[in-house]
Write a structure and sequence with these properties.
The chain has 59 residues and is α+β, with helices and mostly antiparallel strands. The protein contains one helix and five strands, in the order αβββββ. It comes from Bacillus spongiae.
């Protein structure tokens, strides 16, 4: 995914599915470097992790 699309999804009020390594995730934060994002799995687990925006895929 590119930074522009990640920003659109992050600021959207619509529920747009994003995947990281095949798992559905929520984007919690886009980092100022424009390369990393903090995400967490959709569902009951709230564990957050930092990932490369390039590794995110729109489902």
């Amino acid at each position: 995914m590119d930074l522009h699309r990640a920003k659109q999804i992050f600021s959207s009020s619509a529920e747009i599915e994003v995947k990281f390594n095949g798992a559905s995730v929520w984007i919690d934060e886009l980092h100022e470097d424009g390369k990393m994002a903090t995400v967490h799995l959709r569902g009951p687990l709230e564990e957050r992790t930092q990932v490369s925006i390039a590794d995110l895929e729109e489902a």
